[in-house]
Amino acid sequence: MPTFFFNHIALSVTDVDTSVAFYQKVLQLEEIKNTASDSKTRWLSLNEGRQLHLIPRPDFQIKINKAVHFALTTTDLDSFINTLKELDVEYSDWLNTPNKDYIRKDGIRQVYFQDPDGYWIEISEAI
To answer: What positions does the domain VOC occupy (predicted)?
Structure first.
């Protein structure tokens, strides 16, 4: 059996410029060259060779489900929560309690917030 490694996540977005600006502002992601095509899909680096691909689909109806999310980790969740507050980005725990973090059974803290298209993003201390 071959070994697999995570490469990228791709999201359909209604306005690619708005989405790129959001991810750059909130997560400080750096835009990188789309080496796959000359399309309007834009790529952002998630570090360590991982990427977020934002695919423009202006007429696409996006269905949102909190259980379908992607998760990133940080060593300083409190600092990131302060960034969300400074940028007026609403966040919640898993149960949708506004402005509250969630503590998992294993003691890991996490928060959830949404991008401009409503996709859920989890940020946790799990390293």
So the answer is: 5-126
